[in-house]
Amino acid sequence: MVITLNQDIAGLHSRINRAIEEVHKSVSSGVVDYREADKTRLLTYLGGLDAYHQWVIDQPQLDLPESHPHEYELDVNPTPGLVENDAANDIIRILEAGREEIVNSQSARLPSGLVIFDSTRLFAIVEKTRKLVNDYIDSVQPLDLPESSPKRGKSGPGRKGI
Predict the structure, then answer these.
(1) What is the largest CA-CA distance in the chain?
(2) Nearest-CA neighbor of 36 among 137, 130, 126, 157?
(3) Where residue 68 falls among pLDDT bands split at 50, 70, 90?
(4) How far is residue 89's CA from residue 69's CA, in Å, rounded to a whole number?
(5) At what angle do helices 116-131 and 36-58 cross, to 10 degrees?
(6) Could you tell me the pLDDT band of residue 138, with boundaries at 50, 70 and 90?
(7) Cα→Cα distances 113→30, 58, 70, 88, Å
(8) How many Å apart are CA 38 and CA 154, to the nearest integer?
């Protein structure tokens, strides 16, 4: 069980995990090329993460002497294996590193908010991911790798049920 004392870190952790899982289960994960619909979705997830992050840092620092420290149990991290798509693997690695940095940051001991260094680190992680999508992926596609594909199994379907 992983915990944080910061309610905003719990929110960031959940959003990063959701993006990781979405990338891992995307249509692109099972093929060499990164599909346009998956790029659009990923950029939307990153935009949502940026919006939440900006909302967090725009809020006042909360003084919670009666309720802090309060432990927030974090969701279990998804454990995606490597997929066929190298760019998807790169994206997952970047997001996992960002998640680990923020969960183990100085900010994780605050009741809310982010210290400037942790905030800057998170913005950089999201921006690096965005640049991978916008600058790198489009510059190397389409790829034709008939001799080395497929090199990995499928990631499987997304979650089912209600």
Answers:
(1) 63
(2) 137
(3) confident
(4) 36
(5) 170
(6) confident
(7) 37, 9, 14, 30
(8) 16
